[in-house]
Amino acid sequence: MVARFIKISGLCALLALGFTARSEAAEICNETSFIAEVATGWTVDGGVAIEGWTRIRPGECETVAEEVDLSVEQPIFFYAKSSPAYLGGVREWRGTVPLCVDETDFEVVANTRCAALGLASRDFFVREGEDRERTVLAEPSDYGRRAGTAGIQRLLQSAGFPVNGVDGYEGNSTRRAITRFLTDAGIGRDPSDAALMDALEARALERNGSSGLTLCNEADGDISAAVGYRVGTVWQSRGWWRIHAGECARLIGNRLETPSGSEAPAYFYAERVSSSGRRAMTGGDANFCLAPARFVAEERTECGERGYAIAPFRAVPSPEDGGVRITVEESDFEGG
């Protein structure tokens, strides 16, 4: 899923003309309820220097791009994603500038030819002028100073210790869940918030690392993907995820359970995207509603009457340990 909430938070007055000493490095702060992993880029001779990943807990700030002289007018590029520990899949904070990243920690000088370097491509957002000095990742809930508590609540839920909600207020429900986790994990009382988050993330990764639906793209170019699954008693379809060739995306983060009867645990659909248009995936046998742009549609019937298109989704096979991994190839699409 994509989170596009990035606060504009420039701090300092304009630098005087002729000032040549290096100014303070850029700072990025996390006011979301997710542990964020951040990649940073800046222009250099020969391309863009890109490095990642800087891990930032909710409520914390980190210094990045220390090599950049902020007294010189040049943009800084950022891309952020949540830790994969969370239910519901990875969230992203992104923009429109494609740059290269690796899955593990990396430093590279590159242009946009990421595949030739064995790297993935992600869309970075741009910070310019005074806005380069401080960037704040945020959510619609705008937790602000409550981000640390909201982050603990989010991790408790993902680690299997439910709380009443993620609101950033430490009530009785949150305190009881923390106590249950500390007892279960054999951790002493009153750890620091940072230590508690780290322990909760490790538990959530162990619990959710292979859960849900992961779709891998082995076609010759990009695809856009959508999923259909039950939310409670209601069918829901949701899209789109843009997946580059050779990459994977986690479309469903929650554990998948094998349903009773002939019903599949979930369904998926994709379209092959190229400069000449979009080609539909073949072989689907269960109709769901969809729309051209990002969408969430409830129920599977009367799609046309409600302004949606209809597409045949493929059934997901029975999960193993709560998860399914599926690969699509060029032959899975019309004309492939």
Salient structural properties:
Immunoglobulin-like; Muramoyl-pentapeptide Carboxypeptidase, domain 1; seven-stranded antiparallel beta sheet; 3 domains; single chain; globular; 336 residues; mainly beta
Q: How many domains, in number, for the residues?
A: 3
How much of the sequence is in beta strands? 35-45%
- Compute the CA-based radius of gyration: 22 Å
Global morphology:
globular
- Series of secondary-structure elements, N-terminal to C-terminal: EEEEEEEEEEEHHHEEEEEEEEEE
Structural class: mainly beta
Q: Classify the oligomer.
A: single chain
| Main pleated sheet | 7 strands, antiparallel
- Tell me, rounded to a whole number, the average pLDDT: 88
Measure the end-to-end span.
28 Å
How many DSSP helices? 3
Tell how many strands the DSSP assignment holds: 21
In helices, the fraction of residues equals 10-25%
Poorly predicted runs of 5 or more residues: 8-23
